Each structure stands twice: as structure tokens, then as C-alpha cells.
Nuclear condensin complex subunit 3 C-terminal domain-containing protein (Candidozyma auris), 1146 residues
Amino acid sequence: MMDHARPTLKSAMLMTTLTEVEMATSHIFQDAQMTLLGHRKLAVVLRNVQTRAIELDYEESFNFHFTKLVLKVLKVRKGVPAADRIAKFVTVFVKKMIEDEAAEPSRPAEDEDGVPTVFVEFLLRHLLRGTELKFKDVRYRITQFLAYLVHTVPEIDEDLYKALEYTLRRGLRDKEHIVRLQAVVAMSVFQLQGGNDQKPNHAVRAIVSAMNHDESPEVRRAAMLTVTKNKYTIPEVLRRARDTNAINRRLVYGRVFMEIGSLKDVDVELRQSLLKWGLNDRESSVKEAATNMFTKSWLSMADDKILALLERLNVVDSDAAESAMTAYFDKHLESLDKVEFTEQQWKELDSERAFYIRTFLDYCHTHNLYNKLDKSLPEMTVLASYLSDYLRLRMKIIDGDQELLDEYTLFTKKMARFDQHILEKEADQADLMRRISKNEKAVTLGQSHLEALTELIKRTKHDLTHFATKKAELQKAGAETAGLNEKILISKARVKESEKELEELQQRLVKIRDLLLKDEDTLNKNLKALQHLEEEKESYYESASDIPRKYKSFGERMKHLEFIIEQLLLVIKRSDFADIAGTRKLQPLISQAITIHKLPDKLIILCVQILRQLSNDENYFSNLCIEIITDIRDSGMDENDQTFVSAASLFGENEDDEEDDADLQSNEEANKRRKIAPSLPSEDLLIQCLMVLQHYLELLEDSVSSTHQFDSLIETLIRPAMCSTNWEVKRLGVRCLGLVSLLDNYLTLKNLRIFGQYASKSADEKLRILAIQVVFDLLSTHGVGILGGDSEFAVDALSLARLFHTMLREFDHPKVQAVVAEGLCKLFLADLMPDFGKDDVVEDENEEMDYEGSLLRALLIAYFHPLNAQNQELKQILAFCIPVYSFSHPKHQSKVSSVSGDCFYELFNTNSKFQSFDKLMLPSTVLQQFIYWSDPREIVNIGEEDYKKNAAHLWQVMKFLEIIEQDSPKNIKKLIISNLPKLCLHKEIGAPLLRGLKQAINDTQEKISASQDNSDFVLDAPTERLFEKFRTTVNDLVEAAEADEAEARARTPNRSRTPSVPREIPPSTGGNSDPINRVLFAGATPTPVSKGNPDKRDLEAETQESARDDKEDVEKRKMQEKELAEIDQLLEEEEAVDYDIGKETR
């Protein structure tokens, strides 16, 4: 027998027993785990050992012992180098075995299964048996071995292939990310099995799914690097540029794109998105990688020609090309001196060259490269000449294809009109559906009430019959029947009243059914009309489908030419306006371009901005713009038309005019003599006027000099536009009216109601969004003080609050919800909401309308509402704004904590309407979110001493205790109690408030003890212990606070007799069951606190005694009063609040 020395090639050939083979194999494994350097030599030795074992007919034993040694590694955790070395050694050995068997087989060729196949299948089948074990280390090591082995095995049995594939697909869903990562690496081998670019196989789809959805960045990275790159996977891989992990994002711009190797495989839209995402990334490393990708990789793919690269970016429609050019200039500073633009280049601009010139000049302006500017930028006069040439070229192209342009304009108008009518019908359809649903519910409820009334009448009549029989019997017996007579009278009155109510109910049901039938009939007609419109639209599109095809090339030419003009205007905008000769030439050119050339909106914006720069003051600028608007409006009228236009003529005439019209109809000659108002300008001219007006108003700052012009503009342009049936024109009119109102407080008061009506009633969602944005802008600019008042145009806060509430509940219009939520959050963050509705007149003087609390509650409910689960825009707005608002100031956090209990109760009480939804958040998640928002430690710039004095969590506890006492489910009670220890309570809050909390806890405990007959109040032992522990903690805080009070009194013997709790205490409305009263009347101080005003003599005595205090004592008292000021404000706010959480707020 051989000794236990290290096996060699020579000793392997001398082996004769199985024991020697096993000992040699074990020794080789022992050496393999030490270092990676000798793996190839060890694999050669082990291969010779295997060959000798096969010669001795020990092949199965060798395979079994080899697998047994591998199994010893499986239980080793991740990160142990020795286990990783063994896994790599096994891979090296299998590769060596396959190579040797391919060169010189150990078995005859007629054998179906060679040595590698038998060995690998035995090892793999044994490993697959442990893939579902509960030990994560074992699952990880098995998947690691599989990932190594599948890359070395040339072929395996079909059944084993399916088993391996199934195992790896399960591994992609393993709960441990280290297992999923190895499964991704292993699955990458199967990507080429039966798939192609158009139809990828299951392995590719599985890896892409892991790349997009796995929560581990390491797994996503492995999938991104191992997935095959083809037409299907490239877009998915490049979208990882939006990955949450910075390393993954950086790899997309570096290694991944280098593997793709060509811009041709990436569509233009994705190229632009990649640039935008990378150049605007928050991580500097990612931004640098994106810059290198553009300035090195992409530029080299375009043969180092920047214009060719810009052509591939489609700069006309790109919103990332400008940032990319800035990065390019930063990387090529040394070559900027060589940049020159000849006159010929200026006269023969294309889109890419115009963009390059403009971005270069902007870069020079931004970085103060004045020498390069002087060298490259022509004079203003020359620029004006170039602009004039391109404007003339544009008009020449338009004139040459005017017929085609007219056809396309008519086509687009008709298609837009079809779309508008369809949207209107769909809006009517939705309104009818809501009304029908409401009436059906009313009929159902009315029918059930009708049946109940019928049964009541029947039962009462039966009782009457019984009473009559009994009365007859009593009368026959001569007994007293007075009591029975009274019952009979009561029953008859009840029957009469019920029959009357039954008759009224039947009449109401008949009316509702009639309305329901009419609505259903209208719904059917509307549905048919909608179908007819869609068919008509489709028919028209088919008949005119050649018009868009013909217009395509013309439209592309116009788009590129207008882009060139836009670049020239941007260059002019940043040029030197001190050139008098140039400005004199430029101003009439710009004015004429706006008036005559019918420019698109993006060019009108620049032209108006340039006119503002050319104007010395706003008065001149206003006159210039008004003149342009007038010229545009008048361009559609006949030259010989000398009639006048008045506001009255635009909005109807008076009775005298109507009589004159009647006379004129019978007198043709009189009709010729009378000057009548001409018709409004055409729709195209009206849109042109409104666009100029809009951009003029956006630049206007001084409204005083232009106030006299606003009325004329409103009457002659804006109101006619708002009366138009074209939604585009109407939106422009509303936008202009909003801009005018921003400049003038009176116009805001006058038009606010109009914006509210558009926001609530318009069928055009874009118009509704625009109107509500205008409302919020007006409130932000002029303040909420514009609400209410005695003006005939006044809009009260109640109406506006109802509008906000209604629009927040429009789940079918998620964009509307998001805009309203964003506007409300801005008002809250600007601290405008405390004054919201303070001037509203309330019928009951003791009732206070808490619009601020109501709207804040609505926002919190909207955040957790299950129907808003898919409204990502709304969720993102609220997820940002709510914590920012809560953590920005202690007052804000107090407001959030004061409504959080009501919101939680509304969501999770026993009879909550939210319980019927499937996607409602877990109560634990919602509760922890409310606790987090109310945590005083999260307030910005707050010190330890200040947050310990903050009582936000104390008031939240009071609300939570109310929920426990209310009709809430047992699981909610247990959840609240289990989270009470997480609340931030300290003795610095003060003994009065802590004593009140202590009393509230005792009251809640008594309520639980007294309601043991209700299963919802029967808590388990752990919950009771938690509640008792919390009560003990509060008791300790009370004792510590009282000790601090006593110590403070001991240090100040001449202390004033002013009570610890402020005298201005709101009168109790609910007894000691009210949580506020629990705090105030919990024996806070030895001095009794009355509900009315304190005695005047006591006040005078206290004042005299306070006057005798020394200066130090006075300062301390002032500090104490300052500390309690915040509590005073909370008490004032809570004065008239109904603390029955289940009751709806007005």
C-alpha cells in the first residue's frame, strides 16, 4: 500500500486499490483550497488519478468520492476563499477532462456516453437534489457550482437540461440575492438555445426580467453584463441608465455601450434619453462616464466629426443635445481657437451647423470668452440680414406649396374637431353613467324603504284589528278601555303618517324611474352618436390619408428651416444691443415677422423677448406689442372696411339695436348706411393674436402703465376666445386671462369665479388643469385674502375648498388630482393656508370652519387611498411635499399630528368604506408613516432641548387613545398599543400636559375594562402588558416633570401665583371625555382653573404681586409663557373641534 505522500503523475500510475485512489483525490482537494496558482498542475494529477481509477474499474467509486468531497464545501458560507477555490478547481478539472477525452478517449468510440458525460451528469444530478434546501449557504454553493459547470459542459442529457433549466429559473426567484446572482450567471449559458432577435427564448426573457425588477443591484448588474446584446435586449439594457444604483448606471455608459459598439443599433430617441439621463445624473462619476461616452466613444463612431454626430442625434427634436455640446466644448477647450464661421457658412446653414454655431456662441458668452466672440459673432446688422434672408426663404417655400399647406391645415382642423367632439361625447357619457348609477342606488334604497313602510303599515293595521277586537271584548265585559283607545289613536295616526310617507315615496320613485329611463335613453343615443363620430372620423381619415403623406416631406423641410431661424433668433437674443444701426434694422424686421409671417409659437416667444430687449421701458414695449396684435387682427379685414368695433358688438346688442335690426331687415338702404361691427378675426388670426398676447403678458412686470389697455384686450380678444367652441382657442383665452389677472388684484377678484367654473365643469381635461393652475397661481400671488368679502364677484373659501375636495377625489382623472395636490402643497408650504377662509361668515358664531385641517386631511387620505395606487405622479408629489411640510416647522408638524389620528380612523375603523378595497396599505405601514411625520426629532435645525419640549407626539397619542375607545377593530387597537412606545415623549413637555395624558390613559383603560362584553376590546396578555408598560412610562415622566417643577419653585421663593396652565382656556364642550379637557383638568396645578373668566380682584392681586418680583423672576416667567405659547395656540385651534373622530368634517 502506498503511503500518504502528495500524489504525483508517477504515483498515480502505480495505484492498485480504491483506498489509494480516494486518498490521492482527497489530498489533491486539500492542496487545491490553498491557492489558485497550482490548479492546472493539480488538475493534471487528478486527471491521471481518474484515468487509473477507470483502468481499475473504479470509475463509479471515483465519481462518488469526488462528489462527496464537493459536498463538504456546500455548507461553507459566502466569502470563504477556500470554498471559492474548490469551486474554481472543479471547473478547471472538468475542462481538462473534456480536453483529454476529446483528444484521446478512455472508452471505445461505440460507447454512447463518454467519461465526461457520465462524470458531469452524476455530479450535476447530485447537486440538483439540494437546490430547495432551507439553508441559504447550501443553495448558494450549489448554484455557484452550477454556474461554473454549465459554462464548461459541451452537451448534456435532455432530461438533465430541463431539470437544470427549471432549477435555475427557481433560483432567479430565491429570497437570497447571492443565490439569484449565481442563477443569472448560470442562466446566461442558455440564451442561444432556440431564440433570435425578434423572438428571444425563455432564458433571455428571464434574465431581462431580473435585470429590470430584481431588488438587488448586484443581481441587476450581473444580468446587465451577461445578457446577450441584440435588438430585443439593447433597449432594455440601456434603460438601466435609470437604475437606482450608481455603479450600474456608470457601467451602462462605459462597458455596456462598448459591448454594443455601434450607434446604429440604438434608435434616436434612446440616444437622446441616454444623454439626458447621464449628463443630468446626480452622481459625478455617472456624469463623467456619460460625457466620455459622447465625447470619445460616439465621436469616434462618427469619424471624429461633430456635425456628423449631431446629425445622428436629430438636434431638431433633441432636448439633450445642448448639454452634450457643453460637455463637448469642455473637453475640447484647446481646439476652440480654431473654430471659424465664414460668411458662406452663415448663408448656407443646415440644422446641425446652426445648432453648432449657436451652442458655441452660447458657450463663449457663458464662459466670458470675449476674444472668440469678437472673432466668430457677426455684427447685429449682418445678423439681421441673415435672419431676413431665411424668413424670406420660409415665405417662398410656403407660397410655393400653399395649396398643400391649406389642405393639411384643413385636415388637421377636421381631425381635431372630430377628437374634440368625441371627447365631449365621452364626457357626457361619463356624466350620464354617474347619474344613472346614482339614480339606481336611489331606486334600490327607495324600494327597500318602500317595502319596510308597507310592512310597517301592514303590521300596524294588524295591531289595530287586534286592538279593536280586544276593545270590543272589554266593552262587552264592561271594563275600562281608555288606555286601549289611546293606543288605537296612536296606531291610526301612525298608519296615516306612514301611508302619506308611502305615497310621497312612491311618487319620488316614479320620478326617479322616469329620470332613469330618460338618462338610459339618452345614454343609448349618445353611444350611437359616439360610434357614428368614430366611424365618420375613421372614414374621413381613410379618404384623406394621402394628405399627411404628401405633407411629410414639406413638413420636414419647414421644421428644419424654422429650427435654423430659431437658432438665429437665439444668437441675436444674446448679442450686443448697443449697436444702434443693428437694432434699428432689427426692430421692424421682428415686428414684421410676427405680423405677417405667421410664425409658430416657439419663434413668437423669441421674437417677443427680443422686442423686450429692444425696448427702453415697459410702456414702449406694451405699445409695440399692442400695435402688433392690432395689425394681426386687422389683417383679416377688408382694406375698405371703415367700421368700428366695440365691446358691446362682440357680446350682443341692446334692445334698441334689436329694434334697429328689425327695421334694417325691412329697409335695405338703411342697412347700407349704418356702420355695424365687423365679425371677429378668423380662428387662425385669433390664435396668432393670443400667442403674442400671452408671451407679452409673461414678460410684463409693471401693470400700472398698461392697466388701461387690459380692458380693451379682454373684451376684444380674450373673452371672444373663451367663448369659442375650439378648445385650443379657449385654452389660450383662459391662459391670457390668468396672466392678466396675475398683474391686477381687481381682475383676480372679478375672474376667479370663471376659472373655478372652467376647472369644475369643462369637458376638456387640459382646460381644467390650466384653470386650476391659474387659481393656485392667483392665490399664491395675491394671497388667500382675496377670498370672501362683499363684492359681487367674491368667491368664498367654502366653495373653493369644496372644489379642491371634489377634484382630489376624481380618480378617473389622475392628472387633475396631481395638479390639485401640487397646488395645495405649495399653499401649505408658503404658509398661506392658516388665513384660508378666516373672513368667511359662519351662521353659528361658536362654529369655526377649519378649512386648513380639512384640506390637509384630504391630502393625507389621498396619499393612502387605494384608488390612487397607480397614480405615480400624485404619489411622488405627496411623498415629497408632506414630509417637507411637516419637518419644516414645529407648527406644521403640530397640524399634521392633529389630523393624523382622524385620517387613520377614517381608513381603518370598523365601518370604513376603505375596507372593501384590495390594494389598501397595511395598517402598520400607515401608522408608522403618521408617527414618522409627527416625530419632532425630524424637524430641520432643531436642537435636543427644543424637540424634547415639542408636544406633537403627545397630541397624536391623545388621538390614538380616542381610536382605541372608538369602534375600531381589535387588530387596530393592538397595533396602536404596540406602537405607543415608539412615540417621542419627554418630561420637558411639562407636567400639566403629561398629567392630562396620564388621565387620558387611565380613562382608556377604564373604557377597555368596562367593554369586555365586546370582543374588540378583549386584548391578549402581551398587548395588555405593553399598554401597562406605556402607562408606567408616562407616570415616570409625570413624576420627573413634577420634580422639576418643585425644584424650580424651590429656586424661586417669590414665585408669582400665575397658574401653570394659561388662563385663556376654551370652555369645555364635551366634559372630561374630551382629550383636550383631559389635559387641562387633570389636576395640573393647585390653583383651580374655572371655565369662565377669572375673578378681577384675583387678577389685580396677581398683577401687583408680579410687579414686586425681581428682574430675574420676571424673565423666567416670560420664558415659561413663551414655552407655553405653542400650547396656547393649539388650545385655541382645538376650541370648537368635535372630537368624535367618526364624524365627518364639514
Observations:
- Residues 744-837+851-888 form one domain.
- Residues 402-477 form the longest helix (76 residues).
- Residues 77 and 890 are 49 Å apart (CA to CA).
